Amino acid sequence: MPASVIVGLQWGDEGKGKTTDFLAEQVAMVVRYQGGDNAGHTIVIGEDTFKLHLVPSGVLYGHITPVIGPGVVVNPATLLREFDELTARGIDVSHVRVSHAASLILPYHVALDKAREAALGGAKVGTTGRGIGPAYEDRAARTGLRVEDLIDPASAATRLARALPEKRALLKALNAEDAAAVDADAIAKQIAAWGERLRPDTTDLVQRALAAGEHLLFEGAQGTLLDLSHGSYPYVTSSHPIAGGAATGGGIAPMQIDEVMGVMKAYATRVGSGPFVTELTDAIGERITTTGHEVGTTTGRRRRVGWNDALPLRYAVQLNGVSSIMLNKLDVLSGIPEILLCVAYEIDGKRVERWPSSTAEMERATPIYERFPGWSEPIHQVRALADLPENARRYVTALEEIAGAPIVLLSVGPERTQTIERAWRPMRRATKRA
Questions:
Q1: Would you call 92 a catalytic residue per the annotation?
Q2: pTM, two decimal places
Q3: Euclidean distance between CA atoms 313 and 30, whole angstroms
Q4: pLDDT tens digits, residue range 56-93?
Q5: Residue of 13, 21, 37, 309 marked catalytic
Q6: Active-site hit among 21, 41, 240, 309
Q7: 41 catalytic residue (yes or no)
């Protein structure tokens, strides 16, 4: 059976949580493959709203094994708090599995993240201040602790002894000395307490499931345009949200991926710093922000809002090998008289139809728009494509043609049932493996 990947096609916050939740009923395992508690998924089921930060979206289904893969950086305090909150609401978290190879976020990572952002002043990247970048740095430098160290106090103590002198020096250099963040005894006690509750599994869990013929769903955090290697650098995250990241971060081979579903909004948003060519700062932008409840699930930060942009969309579809798309928040555009879609940029007097390779180019870009008539009717209750207003269908068709991949699912509200199945989901390979 195949592995399917859910990937964001914008700057994150595209609604991947709803997409994963909608598709998860058909799978046996949902694997989170990158990021940390700097990202969040909001899922609405009836009157209940769940805000998940580290736990994979599949936790809301009793038959699914949710897996936090080796590509994730885990703050155990956040994860255990999330476990407790879900348990209090009647959700069974005993089947959640955490890879032994996932890296730990420790107090000094958080302190360093905040100190570096403060030191940058007006040039700050816009991180969440949750220690994600410093934890990934330690992973690359081979000095970080991993989930496996939670149950090996001797190993944890050795690694801490090696790491802490450098962390103290860095914090001092940043004028942000924090005794609690680099207290070896206190951190060791925390690690021991976390180890009592968190027991790691290995990536073999994923391979065993695939070998047994199970269908697995891999969910990324953030979005393509925040990818460390392929996004709008340096205003990016510290991991790889793209579909290729599912292989390294989830523990699978590229040929085991049969489907890549891209997720996007009917408009664009981004959080934090960095150029945003189609950003709206007028009354329309304010309306979309308010109607779409554009506030970060994890951070509570207000998202920047803009029109959709064909250039990064085409780039994201190609980079991820997207086979199908879910379009979210189409309902938010109801009542807007005219909808704009950026089809090219003007940079230094020239028309550009590719996404620029540098942040400097993007900062000089002016959007060139196509205009589409809007629709006045609310569409929250629509469940069939034919019942959508004609202008809404035209806009969806235009997005699909520009993206170069079929839009097969349309969301007209946050709740699980507020979804229109527009077309069959094509797989990358039509035949099953023997």
A1: no
A2: 0.90
A3: 25
A4: 988 888 899 999 999 999 999 999 999 999 999 999 99
A5: 13
A6: 41
A7: yes
